[in-house]
TrEMBL record, chain A:
Residue ranges occupied by any Oxidoreductase molybdopterin-binding domain in the UniProt entry: 34-178
Name of the protein in question: Sulfite oxidase-like oxidoreductase
Highest taxon of source: Bacteria
Automatic annotation (TrEMBL), chain B:
InterPro entries referenced in this protein's UniProt entry, alphabetically: DUF6510
Protein name: Hydrogenase maturation nickel metallochaperone HypA
One Pfam family it belongs to: DUF6510
Amino acid sequence: MALITPGFGGRRRDDANLPPGQYRTDDFPVLSAGPTPRIGLDEWELAVITETGERSTWSWAEFTALPADEPTVDIHCVTHWSKFGTRWRGVSLDTLLADVETAAEYVVAHSYGGYSTNLPLEDLLDGRAWVAYEFDGEPLVPVHGGPARLLVPHLYFWKSAKWLRALELRLDDEPGFWETAGYHNYGDPWREQRYRAD
Amino acid sequence: MSTNIGADDALWVDGNALAGPLGEIMGTDLTVAELTCAGCRTTRPLAAMRVFDRAPGLVARCPGCGEVVMRVVRMAGRVLVDLRGSLVLSLPVPVA
């Protein structure tokens, strides 16, 4: 094991915040598996659907009237870039799910445009996930997932589904768009869980 | 090669972009293969598909209905080709 002497070798102060295999960028690259959906705010709706089929829905006005957080977080894309200190405004999943009765352990996030991704429910709770609708003090633009996207910064960013339409609470795990195509089911950047065999 | 470079949308290129990664593993030019889309049941050459390559993998979509017909993900030592959006893949028999 190599020993690194602090102050010798130019080790950057923020390296400790960079997961293995990642490099830092100050850009915000746009990755997309399809055309960008354009959803008018008057037709936008967010739904939470439980395992019994019970639906809770929010219009844009109802959603943006909910108490919001302003998290500043590092994000890590599975294509190896990380971006530090991104500033968002969004509604905590703790708020959205506060009155939802469920025994579910898993969630599938569904997007306008057909994308989906799966996560354990516990990863969306305790202040670790939001439905974000502003980035850097501005409304979230469509190429980055606007009107609203999931924000789960402790997992690779493909889990932070753009153009969020619904959260389906499930008793069983149902792999999503990239998870069925060879990517890791959980996607922890600190354990470098990129592909299913990792 | 066709593309939508310059459009105010996610970038795509045509199916010729699949020739390299698929030819590398299958040893044949798959862009002359034809795919039948499971969404609209239209058959087109692979080269005619729209490939979104600014993504964690290559995502080929039918230019008619927009549904995903193929996903190609390269991982360490292995390439995964997901064809669940296609009904039929037809290939010309090589001439001896």
